[in-house]
Amino acid sequence: MSWVVAVAQMLLVAVLAPFTIGVTKAVRARLEGRAGGRFGQPWRDLRKLLRKPPISPADAGMFFLAAPPVLMATSLIVAFTAPFVTTVGVGGSADLIVVVGVLLLGTVALALAGLDTGTAFGGMGSSREMAIAALVEPTLLLSVFALSTRVGTTSLGRIVEAGASDPARVFTPTSLLALAALGIAVLAETGRIPVDNPSTHLELTMVHEAMTLEYAGRDLAQVEWASAMRLTILLGLLGNLFVPWGVATELSPGWLAFGAVALVVKVLGLAALLAAGEVFLAKLRLFRMPELLAGSFALALLAVLASTILA
Predict the structure, then answer these.
(1) Which DSSP letter does residue 88 get?
(2) Close Cβ partners of 225 (under 8 Å, ≥ 6 residues apart)
(3) Are residues 143 and 178 in contact, defined by beta-carbon separation less than 8 angstroms?
(4) Cβ proximity of 63 and 112 under 8 Å
(5) Cα 71 from Cα 75, distance rounded (Å)
(6) Report field, pTM of the whole predicted structure over 0.90
(7) Pairing with 302, which of 44, 221, 254, 270 sits 20 to 30 Å away (CA)?
(8) Which residues, 6+ apart, have CB-to-CB distance to 18 below 8 Å?
(9) Which residues are within 8 A (CB) of 297 and not within 5 positions of it... i.e. 6 or more apart?
(10) Which of 160-171 are b and which e, b meaning 16 or more Cβ less than 10 Å from the residue's Cβ?
(11) Tens digit of pLDDT for each residue in 207-243?
(12) Which residues form the domain of 92?
């Protein structure tokens, strides 16, 4: 039963991911006074790309070909095991360190693909991506460690369950520091403003887009879909870790349906909030990014130290 629920959870995240991107684009367009597209437009774009054959550069090697399925597989693994709908069974068995490591594996695969093409823009994007990842991944770990120290485990399912059943034990005023640090880390990990602008194609400012310029057809569809899933995964974890109510704690149909609805509401709500914030923010210069990311790391470290002292 738990395996069936985990598969259903994975499919829900996969289906929800393009709508998450659609919400961010639609909300941002409305706030900027543009017509914009519908919430389901990313699904239409993926459908067109999936019908087209992939095209590889002449100098591309195995890393370029392997990156899209690896990126997709890592996203599906996290969606399969992390506590999005339920904390029971396989769907809530993920460990914090494993989740961050699996997400980093996808980042490294895409960075190697950018280098494998032999283009200047691909190498530039890969170097920038790894520089950002070097500061973002420790922040992801530390920001959740601030909660795990109160619970005594790095199991994401048990952290969410403890937060829902006994919030006074898990959450303290210092949890706001961890929330701020994790929010900044999510922006950097998913290439959103102010770290990166997903809607630009200016070569000198690209990070994520520079690594995917050479992809086309089905390969590009996998990369775009996996990137949307990573945004959905991180927003879902952000919502469930700090607002854990609504996550199913038993495998009954009613609880699971309620957990699925709660996940959709949390993810789309955070996506709309993210898009609204991007309207009022500007992309930082490349040499100012370490200051922001180092600041988020300091916030996460302070949250861990304070949680340890107050434990």
Answers:
(1) S
(2) 14, 17, 18, 46, 72
(3) yes
(4) yes
(5) 6
(6) yes
(7) 270
(8) 40, 42, 43, 46, 225, 228
(9) 135, 138, 139, 142, 181
(10) bbbbbeeeeebb
(11) 878 888 889 999 999 999 999 999 999 999 999 999 9
(12) 2-310
